[in-house]
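yo

u said u wanted the structure for the complex thing, so here. seqs first:
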Amino acid sequence: MAGGKRLRVLEDISFEAGAGSFTSILGPSGCGKSTILNLIARLDRQSSGEISTAGDRIGFVFQQPRLLNWRTVADNVTLPLEQQNLDKTALRALAIKYLELVGLGGYENYYPLQLSGGMQQRVAIARALAIDPDILLMDEPFSGLDEITSRKLRQELLQIWEKTSKTILFVTHSIAESVFLSQQILIVSAKPARIFKRLTIDLPYPREYGDLRLFEIETQLTRDFLGMDAG
Amino acid sequence: MTTLPKVLSILSLFVAWIVLSLMFPPSIVPGPVAVFKAMAEDIADGNAFYHLYKTLLRVGLGLVLTMVLGVAIGTIMGLSRKGEVFLDSWVMVGLTVPAIVNTIICLLWFGLNDRAAIVAIGSAAFPAVSISIWQGIKGMDMQLVGMGQAFHLSRSAIIRKIIFPQLLPHILASMRYALGICWKICTTVELIGMSSGVGYQLNYWFGVFSMTKVFAWTLLFLLVMFAIEYLLFKPVESRLTRWRTGVPALQWAR
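structre next:
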């Protein structure tokens, strides 16, 4: 609801993402992509339609790290786990395990403000993974970082995905990013958001920046986006 | 390294005192020797402890009342639009009315006793705390609350682990400021209507024109305040705000 009138944010959104798959939702800013994630995470309720997920543990990574600055890195990672009755040593062991997975081994006792933006985002990813989620929802997690850091983190994300076989749903406004990362891309138009096109990318991993095949796909997608506005 | 400027600063006050006491007669600026001697007398015969205890008791309970009222009202104002509008005038009145008025009214209502002092202190000092808490709640980072909800934290967990820690700096800061106000008001109440306490002592010695004793009690008062600040507030504060400063982790993780 906006200004008293009902706002149609999403229309006719329908898709499937198989277990262990990497799916991107690609679209311009403000088109409602985040709303799709919020609905899947049950943070919002859809006015019609069904959402079913293979389990209900959902890990969420936001555009900002959203860490609690007054807690250590380890305590940030275990925040969602504290409602389960685990003892301190178990919690700490989990924190260390997932911090090592994201490449922050040894940083357990640091505070978020002592870390760079990229490192803080890694902590956020560790936090989302620590609950052993059935689905990992990522809402433009790298768009707040510089390109060099983002490239590094994208490669590391793919490595983490390979190690953990998580189902990932990744929202982005970057054509290059979605092509580099995903097996399936859902291209979403502006409000009300509709799935404009579905694309499957069969290229094997690890993918390399500069791969001409990726570039071709990007070029085609760019044409599609420009065509979408005109049509 | 930060202790050297601090020591020099205190020393300079001391030196200024000595200089002034040499320039003026003892009835106007008594020197440190006379003042410390007068202080030692009162400590030796137990006077100092009794009156300090009475004052600390009133200030302590007055501070408790201040914080309870201040946090309650500030929280309501921060969370509810209607509450904000309604309580705004209470806070306004509380801020504008001079503490002396609270003092006189409470002494007349409750009599010349500790209860009057505590209520006078609490009612006069709470507005500053309310405003601080109110602003603290308004400035809350709601994105962190959203994160808590995304991870399905319970309501109580969000309040305890995400909301309260953000309010803590505001509570601490306003508590320190409130303590200063409480001391001052307590002294006023004691001056006017009590028969014990530091304010009472100041009034008594003023009555017999003993500047030395007035200085002695003021100094005693100051020393206790400094002790509370450096032995209580500063350590607690530095422990709770450890996460703010920090040497940045310079190297990359890999």
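Confidence is low (pLDDT under 50) at residues 250-254 of chain B. The CA atoms of residues 246 and 252 of chain B lie 17 Å apart.
cya
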